[in-house]
Amino acid sequence: MRAIVYSETGPSSVLRLVERPEPTAGPGEVVVRVVRSGVNPTDWKHRAGTGLSTPGGEVGPGHDGAGVVEAVGPGVDHVGTGDRVWLLLAGTGPVHGTAAELTVQPANRVVPLPDGASFDLGAALGVPFITAHRSLTSGTVPRLAAGALAGQTVLVAGGAGAVGNAAIQLARWAGATVITTVSSAEKAALARAAGAHHVVNYREGDPAAEILAAAPAGVDLIAEVAPAANIALDLAVAGNHGTVAIYAENGGNEVMLPAQAAMGKNLRFAFAVLYTLDEALVQAAVEDLTAALADDALRVGEAAGLPLHHYNLANTADAHDAVERGTIGKVLLDLG
């Protein structure tokens, strides 16, 4: 089979297209023939060695993907040969992630994909949607369902990003009023397409005033991508007993927090990273995403505010570069 690998960290040129033996399914494992592989910022960051040591052996990138079950090992009963599935956290254990024609994964990393959901959608779910789910359940609601956030207002910082898009879609499905911030008219159009009720260009006018006009009592939860840059805005618009859920550190790693202002509103600050998330929380997200898929509440593509950019496997380096330079939308590898 063909697979993308690297043996040292560095620029995208360290990625190599190689031939490797086809994997087999051991106990509790599933072999999936990958049709689409999702590329996320974490893929190029891990490959570049950001915050990581040089790999001790060959690494196959790719956490997210979708495809068809090729084989199942003993003890696997939730999927069978020929089933359509999506993959999550596929690059955290085995040698090969989803940037390969075949990948073998633990059963809990393989999830049935409804017939009405495209492989493009399946490959876009993992990192962005599970991260968004964890952000949205860091407040008063431990699980998401249709109507679970009814009566609440959610502010999504950076609504045109992949996680921001996912947070808008999930919060809208859960019944929240969704406000999002963007930096351009192009991104505003994408955020509206994703389903945001109110879109605020933070580079124009008074963003805090615009947000509070839509949520006079303040917002209940903020899904925050850039806490260092946005902390003053977050404190200004958060409601009493609100939650600021931080899942990234865009724009700076250190946050100066005015403690008295935060205490005055009884705010809760929650932090999340997918790769050390408790397995019970990962599986809760999978279950809720499955319910949202059944409700046909999740979408990808231009009409959903998430333009798709397709690359073939041989051009994985170009796909990594596209994500690294901040291409708007979802970057996918086509394998079938």
TrEMBL record:
Which InterPro entries does this UniProt record tie to the protein?
ADH-like_C, ADH-like_N, ER, GroES-like_sf, NAD(P)-bd_dom_sf, Zinc-ADH_QOR/CCCR
Q: What is its EC number?
A: 1.6.5.5
Note the CDD domains from the entry. zeta_crystallin (cd08253)
- Which terms are listed as keywords in the entry? NADP, Oxidoreductase
- Pfam families the record matches: ADH_N, ADH_zinc_N
Identify the domain of life.
Bacteria
> Has keyword Ion transport?
no
GO molecular-function terms, A-Z: quinone reductase (NADPH) activity
Keyword Ion transport appears in the UniProt entry = no
Q: Where is this region: Disordered?
A: 42-64
Domain named Enoyl reductase (ER): which ranges? 10-333
Q: Would you tell me the protein name for this molecule?
A: NADPH2:quinone reductase
Q: State the organism of origin.
A: Amycolatopsis jiangsuensis
